[in-house]
Amino acid sequence: MQTGRPVGQPVGDPTTIATVRRLVERGVHALAALREEIDALNVYPVADGDTGTNMLLTLTAARDTFERQIGQVESDGPESSDESIVALSTWSALSRGGLLGARGNSGVILSQWISALVQRLSVRTSEEPDAEVLAAALRLAADAAYDAVGKPVEGTMLTVARAAADAASVAAGHPDASLENVLAEAARAARSALARTPEQLSVLAEAGVVDAGGLGLCVLLDAASEALTGEAPIAASGVSAPPATPAAPAFGAAYEVMYLLDADESRIAGLKQRLGQLGDSVTVAGSDRLWHVHVHVDDAISVGTAIEAGIEIGRPHRVQVTSFADQIGNQTAQTGQTATGQRRIVAIAAGPGLRALFEAAGAVVVDGGPGGSPSTQSLVEAILRCAATEVVVLTNDEDSVPVAQAAAQRVESENGVRVALIPTRAQVQGLAALAVHDAERGFGPDVLEMTATARHARHGAVTVATRRAMTAAGPCEPDDVLGAVEGDFVIIGDEQYAVATAILARLLGGGGELVTIVSGSDPGAAELAERCRAWVEQTHPLVDAVVYDGGQDRYPLLVGVE
What we know:
Largest sheet: 6 strands, mixed
Radius of gyration: 29 Å
Structural class: alpha/beta
Low-confidence stretches: 1-12, 235-250, 328-340
Mean pLDDT: 83
Distance between the termini: 54 Å
Number of strands: 16
Strand content: 15-25%
Oligomer: single chain
Number of helices: 20
């Protein structure tokens, strides 16, 4: 948009693009100038002092992507593409840049606010006056900001965005409405709403500050208004004067989880609901198939669950996990040992051979497995024995998951160690996860990669019934051979090799590149494992098969397919 532009001028014309570039650039400079002041106000939803920084990084990412697209269009020349296509790609670049570069809760909300503005600008018709377009865009932006948040809270930047939209709608209804006075009224109403935020949110009143995200939004609206009108806005009383040392409340959440997600829009409502059950400050912004996910959670177990929630409906990437305690410099680990700072793995092993495999890969091992879950205390001791600030726990058995959850929560609350639990339900899943562990990656991306690999490792087992029972495959008698897939018995037979190859056939029916076969402690288990490897090589010549001596009880054979 441009002041004084004739109605009907194409949305992608050079003058319009130049005006938007100028407004975005002014917004970046305005946020940069007040970044520290906004950070100092930041006490909600978490007093991590980075709201101004996050909003600046988000807008900067949007600007940079916008500029690159404009540069590409200019280098291609005026005749390189249809003007409407060029215009849409340019607006899309501004929206997508903000989404991809969003940082923190405030940044995700800001990216959605920008995206909605851009969406309205990109579909305007030639008959629409600028004032009406701007008012409609600010209304869509406010609605989008609210929609992005799982549980909207008044007294935040959401309230400020809505006040700006309401004022813009009223101003646009006047007969002599112009772009300049609509924007000026929106900015004025935003500042007034910001000054009232302590009345709506008690944590702000207790700290003696206004909402940090709301101030950031006011800064952007003021900068845009000043750029178009040439008049500096009149600051609302108390808006920009935080106390020298604002009283920051204690942290409510322990971790911030963010990731980009490729997923169908139909699955997003369910994701918001699940994340809302895990933590707070839930924001999910985006459109089409690309979403920016943000949530605050209380413990490391919920970190993994929040990431898994994304894996279940799509493809998470660019995962970021931030410890709020670390962010403010409280990194003291009260373990009684000197923390190495490196990331370590704790794995539950069901036999001496499996123990050796996990230890060879660098894991601290706790004995356990089917029918013999370790105690909470033994897992606590293993985590502390790592002497690391970050620990990933592989349960490798379904019954061990609640025990490991209790241990992780205890260590986090009492010792300050960052613990992520990957609820692997089979030994072969743990081996698969450990194979992709990379301590050089960030904590979140490493946990994500290990979790995804474990989930994609299909697993099965062969055991022998010790009593009469009813299974999913039917009734069994003592000494019957049972074949399990993903923890459920699906085959009952009288010969181990026949059952084992039937299980392998089922697992390989869905494809696979690697078969892991782990022999148990039973007599003849090693020979059974070698026969199964030969069967894989003969029937699936393009699939690799490896055999390990696991030494586990009760299960002559464990198998995994990746």
